[in-house]
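Reminder to self: keep the SMILES exactly as supplied, no canonicalising. Ligand is adenosine-5'-triphosphate.
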Amino acid sequence: MGIIGIDLGTTNSAMAYYEDGKAHIVTNDQDQRTTPSVYQVKPNGEEVIGLAAKKGAATFANRTVLEVKRLMGTGEDVVIDGNAYRPEEISSKYLRYLKESAEQKLNRNIDEAVITVPAYFTDAQRKATKDAGELAGLTVERIINEPTAAALAFCHDNLDEDRHLLVYDLGGGTFDVSVVELFEGIVTVQSSVGDNELGGTDFDKVLANLILETFEKENGYPMETIAQDPKMLAYTIKEAAESAKIELSTQVEATIMIPFIGLKDNFPVGFNGTITRNAFEEAIRPYIDRTLEKVATALAEAGLTPSDIDEVLMVGGSTRVPAVQEAVDSLFGDKIRTDVNPDEVVAQGAAVQAGLKSGAIDASTGLMAIDVCPYTLGLSIVQENEYGENVFGVFDPLIEKNTPIPTKQTKTYYTMEDGQEEVHLEIYQGEARRVEDNTLVSDDIYVRNIPRNRAGAEQIQVTFHYDINGLINVEALVVSTGQVVKEVIESQQGVMSKEEKSQAVRRMEEEEHVSDAYDRAKKAIHKAERAKAACSEQDAARLSDQIAHLQAALEAEDVRAIERNEQKLLDLLLEVL
Ligand SMILES: Nc1ncnc2c1ncn2[C@@H]1O[C@H](COP(=O)(O)OP(=O)(O)OP(=O)(O)O)[C@@H](O)[C@H]1O
Ligand SMILES: [Mg+2]
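Structure tokens returned for the bound complex:
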């Protein structure tokens, strides 16, 4: 039994475990401290996760999924070989892999996780993340915001310091900035602003476009026209762009080489070019400026100026871009902490939260995090305008953004018609005056079984909560009957229903079964090959024979034969050793 902290990133995930007074990064089964969030399934059903999947992305372009975090909560599917998956199903595959790696490394069962999300994630994105954990067999009672996790990890190591922190978190896919107050171990978020579509991936896209433009200028035709597989080309360029970007963090110029793109008049064509740091920085300037605008907003919402900030934590791999560092430096100078690991601090913070939950951290330290809701929560209402006309879709705020969570607000509604038996509500989150410019939480909210009565006679008290995880819950009380309805949200765009979840679990079990069969068979072969050296010639020959049978089954992609022959090989091993 154990709780692990997981930073489920757009491009990389990391995990940590709290033990002996410290959050320790737990490496994956290949001893890496972070795992690329990449999923791949080979034609025979073998699932590959992490670095190997990232490396094979271009080769198995139609069977590889990258950056699925950007699709969480959108309702958009991922298609692999004609099969549609929900983004949370793909996420759950990484999570299961991380859970199993951790179980191996820590030598104990991991049944619960604290998972981090960008502070600016909406309700649907948070619910999808929680569901991904649960699909992976993890209980997820706590979701924690990434910048808050970073601040919590920092506070854990610097308990005596009372100060204002600014967390600048620029990862692969998302940007968050939070202003946080540390006081006697209590981490209080004062404001949180972000952009869920801004990160290193966008820098890669900018570079990829530069590559495409340069190619077309030099060759007089677009690169795509000679590519055999457009998706494969896109992954190849993305890979080249990302490595050039990383090179530009230390060099002032990077070489981009793509040996083979396709054939033109029967001749192989490739790409060879250089890009300077200056050109790259100019191209990503708009993104950096956008992050600075968000910093200004976060400070303003907290009622602070840059000079009130004592320390700045730079979190996320993209903070290694020199232009990003210079931009933050121009505002905060030497307040930037240099002792924070941008790739690990979020997972460590999640582990600290896990430690608080499990009791591994003594409550007497007083350490805790108080977060805020990132969006204003409100309802769609009809309002009369100055001409006496009804205007639909006006946003009526109930809980203002940056309110400490958990928090709730109750509003009383009255029936409008004689005999009215149900009330229908539409809730949104966002800051705009019109609901269509905000994010729909759900328009499938019903309070039913209201006693038939005359118009206005029945009172319904509806309570809107932002819970400790930033998730929205709605509860209703029909005053005359005392009936409380807890599950008022019936369905939500971008969030899986109970039936969809149980279907997904069934499908995943089948897929895992197939993939595990390959994995186990390969391990058995490895073991048998090694055992051959330690046994008699005769036994070695029997082992070779059985290895050959298993290999034939693997080649035939016959899962039942694989399982049968793996068992035979294991039995034989027991016999000869
Ligand atoms: N040395 C470097 N220079 C520039 N960019 C880098 C460097 N190292 C990593 N990156 C970029 O950092 C990004 C990954 O950062 P990180 O692992 O923090 O993101 P993430 O946690 O996956 O994403 P998010 O938090 O947005 O969900 C990638 O876009 C990667 O290319
Ligand atoms: Mg991250």
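Points to follow up:
The mean pLDDT is 94.
Residues 498-532 form the longest helix (35 residues).
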